[in-house]
Amino acid sequence: MTFLDDVEKISDAVTVEDVWDVLVTRLGEYGFDRLIYGFTRFKTARGFGDPQDLLILSNHEARYTDRFVGEAMYFNAPMVRWSTENVGACSWSWLQNNVDVLTSSELKVLNFNRSMGIVAGYTISFPHSTHRSRGAIALTARAGLSQLQVDEIWTHAGRNIYALCNVAHLKFMSLPHNGSRRALTKRQREVLEWVGDGKTTQDIATIIGLTPATVEKHLRLAREALEVETTAQAVMKASLKNQIFLIETTS
After folding, report:
1. How many whole angstroms separate alpha carbon 74 and alpha carbon 97?
2. pLDDT at residue 239 above 90?
3. CATH number at residue 133
4. pLDDT above 70 covers what percent of the chain?
5. Count of domains for the chain
6. Which residue did the predictor score with more confidence, 26 or 236?
7. In a shared domain, residues 23 and 144
8. What range defines the domain where residue 153 resides?
9. Tens digit of pLDDT for each residue in 146-161?
10. Which pLDDT band holds residue 240 (cuts at 50, 70, 90)?
């Protein structure tokens, strides 16, 4: 498979899982056998928004992700801090060069990672279009590779790796995802789409052949699924998470 083959597979993908499979396979061949990707459109000054709104993908073992993700250790991960302040690719040699300025919480995460065999790799922080959007991927090198060897790999293949990860990130941003929330039903998506088009409850009832009360019920269930208070918030969140105005596929 060539780089162009990978790009075409990612471009043609219809699910987040399809894109992820390409990344895991190709980056594994480069020597990065454990990946963790995170993306949010809901970053605030104090954090990354509701954890349920995050898109997090990983092929790490559950005993690692249960703590790093499940216990929100990522919030204090030093390379996560780097990724919120920078754009581009960064060797984990950055950790060795800045260990004296890490906080106690960051050192705790660093030591946890080392105890799990996560010692060499690269982090890519993707360009973002709004202050509330952030996306990054951590590439962990397979056991036995030193950071010096990883940096050699990057010297020869870094441009391809960086470009492939950026293409995948752009595709992730365009695909629907629910995070850990329950998915909207087809009818809930439909009524939210009509609201987004400026239609009233009565308009929607007439268009799709339901009673206004039934339309209101679907809107209420959509708000509950998205955990928001107003229908306007539901339309905004569903749109940001690519859950409405979907093109139906047969695959």
Report:
1. 20
2. no
3. 3.30.450.80
4. 97
5. 2
6. 26
7. yes
8. 3-174
9. 999 999 999 999 999 9
10. confident
Is the pTM higher than 0.70? The answer reads: yes
User: Is 245 part of any domain?
Assistant: no
pLDDT tens digits for range 60-112: 999 999 999 999 999 999 999 999 999 999 999 999 999 999 999 999 999 99
Rounded to an integer, what distance in angstroms lies between the CA atom of residue 205 and that of residue 155?
60
Q: Are residues 165 and 103 in the same domain?
A: yes
- Same domain, yes or no: 63 and 88: yes
DSSP letters for the chain: --HHHHHHHHHH--SHHHHHHHHHHHHHHHTEEEEEEEEES--BTTBSS-GGG-EEEE-S-HHHHHHHTTT-GGGG-HHHHHHHH--EEEETHHHHHHGGG--HHHHHHHHHHHHTT--SEEEEE---SSTT-EEEEEEEEPTT--HHHHHHHHHHHHHHHHHHHHHHHHHHHHS---TTSPPPPHHHHHHHHHHHTT--HHHHHHHHT--HHHHHHHHHHHHHHHT-SSHHHHHHHHHHTT-SSPPP---
Q: Say if 250 falls within a structural domain.
A: no
Same domain? For 166 and 193 the reply is no
Provide φ and ψ at 34, rounded to 5°: -135, 125
